[in-house]
Amino acid sequence: MNLEKGNLLYRGKAKDIYQTDQQEQVIVKFRDDITAGDGEKKEVMGLKGYYNSLISAKLFTILENAGIKTQFIDLPEPGFMLSHKLEMIPLEVITRNIAAGSLLKRFPFQEGQNFNPPIIQMDFKNDEYHDPMLNDDIILALGLATSDELEIIRKITIKINDVLKNFLETRGLLFPDFKIEFGRDCDDNIVLGDEISPDTCRFWDRETKDILDKDLFRKGESGVIEAYQKVANMILDEEDKKKWSLNF
Ligand code: TMP
Ligand code: ASP
Q1: pTM of the complete model
Q2: Using 50, 70 and 90 to split pLDDT, how confident is the model at 247?
Q3: Would you say the CB of residue 14 lies under 6 angstroms from ligand 1?
Q4: Which domains are seen in the chain, by residue range?
């Protein structure tokens, strides 16, 4: 897809946002850059943007079908997502079903411990401050969101977790935790934005417990792209694969 440089609205660590000729629509370009440690560790991995866009489009579609508002409009081609334009809220909303990752470094939980109900954690999306964990009072004092918005975000997040966990289970995947971000659309509705991909979720093979997400990169292990490809292969329908001529 040919995107004009002048239309670039925002460049993040792994995605670019371009204005389209429709005021309220943008193109999200999924790049092949992969980073960890607030961008300190950095590489380019061919096809990462391709797989992440397909995986995100699939998961957003499943959520839309369950009645959840997302930014997703269409995937005109892999790597490029036509989306509603949102004013993003700088919160990383993390849901944890199984104890893993930073939670184990900070608190005396047991690795693999199940959380029912899941834990919802909100971090400040801010590299300079290293994404610190927030509480409601800090969110309100910083003016990141209103208490009504926080309540809506929590409600939607719980529903997203239920829908995705159930879907992924049918595809042979465990869903230990994930991070999502929300924004406000032109009518100030809270809408799910960003992406849902192996960059932003933990996905484990239900049978083998193999890690199939960015943790491989964070830990310096090999097979990162192969893992992303495997997730795409497990969650996309035959119809999607045919549409994009994917041979797995
Ligand atoms: P954590 O265990 O490192 O806190 O990560 C929790 C979840 O959030 C995990 O699914 C990966 C995701 N995540 C991001 O999407 N961006 C980040 O910067 C970090 C640290 C985690
Ligand atoms: N989002 C963080 C970064 O890009 C890292 C992470 O996902 O672990 O640096």
Answers
A1: 0.97
A2: low
A3: no
A4: 8-85+223-243 (3.30.200.20), 88-205 (3.30.470.20)
